[in-house]
Amino acid sequence: MATMTTELLGFTLAHPIMPAAGPPVRDGAALLACAAGGASALVTKTISVHPAEVPAPNMADFKTYFLNTELWSELPAEQWLETEYPQTRQAGLPVIISLGYTAGDIANLAPRVAPFADALELSTHYIGNDYGPMQAAIQAARVAGVPVLVKMSPFREPQGAALAAQEAGADAIVAVNSFGPAFGIDIEHGGRLWMGGKGYGWMSGPALKPIALRMVYDIARVVDIPVIGVGGISTGEDVVEFLMAGATAVQVCTAAIVKGPDIFGKLAQQLDRWLDKHDYDSVTQIQGLALKQPIPAMAQPPVLLIDRCTGCNRCVTSCVYHALYLEDRKIHIHEERCAQCGLCISRCPVDALHPPA
Ligand SMILES: Cc1cc2nc3c(=O)[nH]c(=O)nc-3n(C[C@H](O)[C@H](O)[C@H](O)COP(=O)(O)O)c2cc1C
Ligand code: SF4
Ligand code: SF4
Questions:
Q1: Residue identifier of the C-alpha nearest atom 3 of ligand 3
Q2: Do 157 and 31 belong together in one domain?
Q3: Which domain, by its residues, includes 283?
Q4: CB 178 near ligand 1, within 6 Å
Q5: Is the domain of 326 the same as that of 221?
Q6: How far is the CA of 353 from the centre of ligand 3 (A)?
Q7: 116 and 159, same domain (yes or no)
Q8: How far apart, in whole angstroms, are the C-alpha atoms of residue 308 and residue 302?
Q9: 226 in a domain, yes or no?
Q10: pLDDT tens digit string along 181-225?
Q11: How far, in Å, CA of 208 to CA of 231, rounded?
Q12: Is residue 340 located within the same domain as residue 218?
């Protein structure tokens, strides 16, 4: 069994996997269910000074992506302070309280939630491209005297924003929030729309993962504070990708909605099994591995490990340069036709094609 413990902002977490702000943490009871489901820390649904007026319908699952137009918590701050936060603390896990949005909102909320918070997470989703309002919100949050995490939205340039957050006193960056606005149409029912409000939604789930990974990779290269990755995680291997991209820990929202709060413990088990299988002793060994890798350059055709080839034809079909062919159910190449595009390497299910040394 690999060592899964993760040091984050002075806390020793059992493993690096926690919920992200969203419906799975919509109130105290839901947060306790996440704790029972194996989360290592708890992030609460974003609250603001006024409860959100959430349009309905506000969620739809398209399998490769998920749309929502849920905004922040529809529960008033007073209810969180009186009931939901005290209940959340019963879990005995670090509690990260998510707040939005302006410096004025945060100045109002941060001192009130401070008795229940081990850290604050600020959503920057609705405060524009300027770094000024974000920096002012961070400074307002610092009066709570606990670490301040700043959550990035994926439609903004990440490195400048993360550096500006760090400069203003952020203790960690969370990347990313949902992407959008985006749109979904039900073609089987006359082009019916899926979302209330303006008809638009914000995209999360598997299709968000490559965008979120890029943001984590970019941010982790420039800041000196921890990065928490979030976006499209639904398997232990997804967690591995985020840790390798430079994340210290990860959050999960959509997969916890569609699969339930037991997902956190399951992901931790899958991560543990993956580390064991690949002979890593701890999560820390894989953190940031991708940051040390050179950007690949391919000047030769791929190397063919013919003995491994099962003759499945996948790489042949997709080689648009017609460089690959099968003979006696084994892979061969017309080297002069190969354009070194690299696609076949990612298509082979049995690792029979490698980049040239
Ligand atoms: C229905 C829904 C509600 C969300 N509400 C919030 C929120 O209140 N505050 C916030 O910072 N992010 C919110 N998010 C964004 C998630 O925390 C997360 O950043 C995003 O969905 C990407 O992760 P995922 O692919 O694991 O869902 C919400 C996402 C969904 C799907
Ligand atoms: S690298 Fe590209 S062009 Fe060359 S064999 Fe593979 S798929 Fe074909
Ligand atoms: S994808 Fe791999 S196993 Fe399939 S034909 Fe190509 S080299 Fe062989």
A1: 309
A2: yes
A3: 6-292
A4: yes
A5: no
A6: 8
A7: yes
A8: 14
A9: yes
A10: 999 999 999 999 999 999 999 999 999 999 999 999 999 999 999
A11: 6
A12: no
Whether 297 is in a domain gets the answer no
Within 10-112, strands assigned E span: 11-13, 17-19, 42-43, 59-61, 66-68, 95-99
Residue 301 near ligand 2, beta carbon < 6 Å: yes
The pLDDT value recorded for residue 127 is 78
The answer to whether residues 218 and 320 belong to one domain is no
Q: Is residue 229 classed exposed, middle or buried when 0-12, 13-18 and 19+ CB atoms within 10 A define those classes?
A: buried
Query: What pLDDT, in 10s, does the model give residues 127-141?
Result: 788 999 999 999 999
Among left, alpha and beta (phi > 0; psi -120 to 50; other), residue 199 is left
Determine the distance separating the centroid of ligand 3 and the alpha carbon of 350, expressed in angstroms: 7
pTM to 2 decimal places: 0.97
Ligand 3 centroid from CA 345, angstroms:
9
Give the position of tokens 């037991």: 262
Structure tokens at 249: 């820990």
Domain membership flag for residue 298:
no
What is the number of structural domains in the chain? 2
User: Is the minimum distance from the CB of 25 to ligand 1 under 6 angstroms?
Assistant: no
**Cβ contacts of 340 within 8 Å, gap of 6 or more:** 298, 299, 300, 301
Residue 29 and residue 143 in one domain: yes
Q: Are residues 308 and 282 in the same domain?
A: no
Q: Is 313 in the pocket of ligand 3 (CB under 6 A)?
A: yes
Distance 160 CA to ligand 3 centre (A): 43
Q: Which of 292, 311, 334 is the last residue of a domain?
A: 292
Domain boundary among 250, 268, 292: 292
Task: Write the residue with the smallest CA distance to atom 2 of ligand 3.
Answer: 348
- Please report whether residue 156 resides in a domain: yes
Confidence of residue 155 (pLDDT cuts 50, 70, 90): confident
- 282 Cβ inside 6 Å of ligand 3: no
Using pLDDT thresholds of 50, 70 and 90, give the confidence band for residue 125: confident
Q: Are residues 90 and 214 in the same domain?
A: yes
